Amino acid sequence: MINLTIDGKNYKGEKGENLLQVGLNNGFDIPHLCYHENLSPYGGCRLCLIEVTRGERTTLTTSCTYPGEEGLQVKTSTPQVLKARRLMMEIILALAPSSSHIQSLAGKMGVERTPFNYQKEGEGCIKCGLCVRACEELVGAGVLTFSHKGPQRKVEPPFGEEPKNCIGCGTCVYVCPAGCLTMEDTPQERKIDRWKRRMEMKTCQKCHQPYMPTPQIEYILKGPPDPPPEKWLSCCPICRRKG
Ligand code: FES
């Protein structure tokens, strides 16, 4: 365990645990969008900025990427911190103005409007990289990547082509805080338009409803060391529960 101060009070944290997690664990409401406790930190949205004093040196830094250590002095709401976070929120709001999650977070931070206009640039993507990391680290498929540099930087499958190794699990859609990814199921196929990905759907042998993309079933069957029996995957979860 380590001892550190946050906004002048003493707290404990795990050595190496990032300061955002230490703060959240101790009830500090530090805004964040690109952090997920089950993924490696990326430091992309810069909403979690804090001020850290280590010895003689004070820096403005992203708390999600700063490992906790003994004796740090952390400040979560100095005027500089709030000003920098506000600017980042204005940029994010301009990138994804129609995301209800981002609107709500902006509202909590007192940001009602933005002077910027980037809407067409990333079509709602805030470039937080959550989808890229979730696909790589949680699913193990790794079909997404950042391409281009500067303002043109965007997330896409390699070469912008349909990623044939995408299994259609939808994890990227679920983790996206900007709501810029959509997944649509028809009786024949699942579509994730942003990745130009279309997959055939497996139909439940009992109720005959489509329930999972075929590549996802193939992935489950060959993926873990102890995959479920193929018969188990021939039915949808509802029919499986009915026995
Ligand atoms: S949550 Fe730390 S930079 Fe996004």
What's the gist of this structure?
The protein has helices at 19-25, 79-95, 100-108, 119-122, 130-139, 171-175, 214-222, 237-242; strands at 2-6, 9-13, 49-54, 57-62, 73-75, 145-147, 154-156, 184-185, 189-192, 197-203, 210-213. With 243 residues, it is of the alpha+beta class.
Can you put this structure into words, describing what you see?
By secondary structure, the chain is an alpha+beta fold. It has two domains: 2-108, Ubiquitin-like (UB roll) (Roll), CATH 3.10.20; 130-242, no CATH class. Helices cover 28% and strands 20% of the residues. It has eight helices and eleven strands. The protein has helices at 19-25, 79-95, 100-108, 119-122, 130-139, 171-175, 214-222, 237-242, and strands at residues 2-6, 9-13, 49-54, 57-62, 73-75, 145-147, 154-156, 184-185, 189-192, 197-203, 210-213.
